[in-house]
């Protein structure tokens, strides 16, 4: 019998949930030194801005104020890092392989977003494979299949005042990191899950997802940690690779970002300055 091949672990994008306050989130991330795409509107009812990097990106997502339909589930989560998204080149095959492996996933969902390119409107098309509700307690984890990559990864959107070129890491807080890591060992193979101080790490292409205890998070980031808002498990921090720490520091000063912790190895932006997500910049 032919066995379905499980997908490779590649990072597509990470998501900051702005709930229904996109104007404030977009202003904040521009002041953090990111170049944002024009506001886009999904056929599912949400809106977004993107900060594009070499092969991955940061997404700000929200629903319109006063919305009574559409992506209202975004309002059920606090503001902050809320989505970790793997790449898929074939969403149907990804869904079939994950289902066969016993991973609880929803049927694929296809949607669009108009994009204005060279004065003409075109539709960027996507299909996602999402984990069933309750599979992970710390946010949204899913796969994204891009049908129109040329409408998303465009060079004019990849240049940022803070010098960011890639996402290096996302950090998840979980009381039992070893138990939480079993899902990823099932999806991608146990060889991609490693022991780290305070938890486990999943290797995701050139990036990684760290799953750590809250104590380990606080040891690394101290007062820069996000507000858990009563949650025992949550997505907490992002590490960005920048071409230059000096460039990043200059962009943060220009943007009036307060409380930045600077060293020769990294810059840390407190979560209270980044819509409840701790941001780290490394060279």
Automatic annotation (TrEMBL):
Any idea where the Glyoxalase-like domain is?
Answer: 11-187
Q: Which InterPro entries match?
A: Glyas_Bleomycin-R_OHBP_Dase (IPR029068), Glyoxalase-like_dom (IPR025870)
Pfam families in UniProt: Glyoxalase_3 (PF13468)
What is the recorded name of this protein?
VOC family protein
> Organism classification, top ranks?
Bacteria, Pseudomonadati, Pseudomonadota, Alphaproteobacteria, Hyphomicrobiales
């Amino acid at each position: 019998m032919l066995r379905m091949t499980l997908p490779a672990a590649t990072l597509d994008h990470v998501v900051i949930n702005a709930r229904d306050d996109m104007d404030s989130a977009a202003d904040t991330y521009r002041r953090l030194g990111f170049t944002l795409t024009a506001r886009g509107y999904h056929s599912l009812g949400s809106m977004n801005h993107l900060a594009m990097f070499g092969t991955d990106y940061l997404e700000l997502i929200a629903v319109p104020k006063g919305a009574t339909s559409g992506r209202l589930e975004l309002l059920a989560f606090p503001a902050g890092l809320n989505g970790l998204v793997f790449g898929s080149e074939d969403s149907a095959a990804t869904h079939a392989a994950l289902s066969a492996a016993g991973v609880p996933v929803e049927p694929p969902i296809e949607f669009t977003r108009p994009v204005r390119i060279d004065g003409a409107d075109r539709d960027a098309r996507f299909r996602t494979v999402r984990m069933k509700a309750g599979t992970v307690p710390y946010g949204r984890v899913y796969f994204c299949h891009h049908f129109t990559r040329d409408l998303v990864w465009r060079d004019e959107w990849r240049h940022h005042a803070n010098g960011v070129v890639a996402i290096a890491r996302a950090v998840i807080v979980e009381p039992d990191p070893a138990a939480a890591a079993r899902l990823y060992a099932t999806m991608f193979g146990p060889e991609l899950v490693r022991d780290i101080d305070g938890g486990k790490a999943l290797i995701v292409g050139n990036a990684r997802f760290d799953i750590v205890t809250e104590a380990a998070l606080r040891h690394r980031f101290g007062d820069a940690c996000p507000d858990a808002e009563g949650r025992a498990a949550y997505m907490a921090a992002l590490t960005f690779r920048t071409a230059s720490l000096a460039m990043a520091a200059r962009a943060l000063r220009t943007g009036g970002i307060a409380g930045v912790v600077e060293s020769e190895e990294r810059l840390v932006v407190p979560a209270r300055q980044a819509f409840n997500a701790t941001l780290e910049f490394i060279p």
